Amino acid sequence: MPKAIRIHTVGGPEVLRLEDLPVADPGPGEARVRHAAVGVNFVDIYHRTGLYPLPLPSGLGVEGAGRVEAVGPGVGGVKPGDRVAYMAGPGSYAEVRNVPADRLVKLPDDIPDRTAAGMLLRGLTVQALVRRTYAVKRGDVVLWHAAAGGVGLIAVQWLKALGATVIGTVGSDEKAARARAAGCDHVIVYSREDVVKRVKELTNGEGVPVVYDAVGKATFDASLDALRPLGMLVSFGNASGPVPPIEPALLGRKGSLFLTRPSVYHYVARREDLERGAAELFDLVRAGKVRIEIGGTWPLAEAAKAQEALEARATTGSVILLP
């Protein structure tokens, strides 16, 4: 019987349980995918802890890559044998699962399964953030927090391909080296440097037009203060905890700032947007403009260890489970 990671209560990594989980034949509009690799993301931790509540018991994991084994009635876009990747509802921490077929994207032959499982959610997130939430243009100076993380390393490379100047923040010298290797023009080690002061020095006192912040509570105030008037804070994660409520008037006092909280799922809800975003991502990867770094792999049964490493910010690049 296929194995899957399940949770029956919220809590720490210890609540993850490897269980036998029967998989039914795919229903209308579904495809059954046997995973070759599964992506581990911060949203999985938010689900596990209850920050983003799920009906329990539940599977975990929203990203995977593998091969279609069977399709249900009405499915015409994929067929058994196709290599695919997806981002969908929780349940990818499994050997096999059924997925809505309209969430699957076919993989080019020259993109390996592990690469695909480590880049689709992160890559589509970056595509949405830098191409649509705030359309970065050549010459923009951008501040990106956690520049050596799984999303950050993809973002830095993508931003350089767009012609931006990238200021990245990291927590250690080792991560600073990784961020620079990805293309960061300036790296701030936030554990010993004043982020706002350095940003203002690097921009002649002006600040940046956009800050991308997946860290949350620990960086929110600095993100606002690093913006120039009319700048935009793109807050898209809670790695350090959720941001406390703020008064909208604060944005006015700090320079008529814009604040947005995007979710990639809204940006790819339409099939045509999913296909367009994935095609742009695949093209950049195949052209060598964006390299996907796999920062660590764990067996499916050790999903708790993978989450512990990610939660402790002990990883760089993408984290992968191997069923």
UniProtKB/TrEMBL annotation:
Pfam families: ADH_N, ADH_zinc_N
InterPro entries: ADH-like_C (IPR013149), ADH-like_N (IPR013154), ER (IPR020843), GroES-like_sf (IPR011032), NAD(P)-bd_dom_sf (IPR036291), QOR-like (IPR047618), Quin_OxRdtase/zeta-crystal_CS (IPR002364)
Coiled-coil intervals, chain numbering: none
Domain Enoyl reductase (ER): 11-321
Alphabetically ordered keywords of this record: NADP, Oxidoreductase
The organism's place on the tree of life at top rank: Bacteria
Protein name listed in UniProt: Quinone oxidoreductase
Organism field: Anaeromyxobacter oryzae
